[in-house]
Amino acid sequence: MLTLTNQRDELQRIATFLPQIVMATIAKVELVDGRIIIGVVRNTSGGTRTENRRSYYYGGATLETLDGKSVTIDVREVQGVERVWDEQKDAFEKAGLITIVDLQE
Fold this sequence. Notes:
CATH topology: SH3 type barrels
Helix content: 25-40%
Shape: elongated
CATH class: Mainly Beta
Mean pLDDT: 93
Number of helices: 2
Radius of gyration: 15 Å
Low-confidence stretches: none
Strand content: 35-45%
Structural class: alpha+beta
CATH superfamily: Protein of unknown function (DUF3247)
CATH architecture: Roll
């Protein structure tokens, strides 16, 4: 579950890493606890909610790993993001998780 926050350092993580995850297609995400998750980006969400005239923010992403597990990440817990499309695309296609289409110009 995604957690609401108004802490400046957590807002910075959301603003920095959520767009990186969106653009990665296949992402390697390192969490602040040292865990690494590699997966196809299936969903991202981010936004704000106001309570008692204070704004709270959230950001998250769901990745599908090579073994087919769906992992939802709270972006507040992300330490780094790396795009690993070139290194991982063949394995993910072989597993049936993505389909690569060659668009003719």
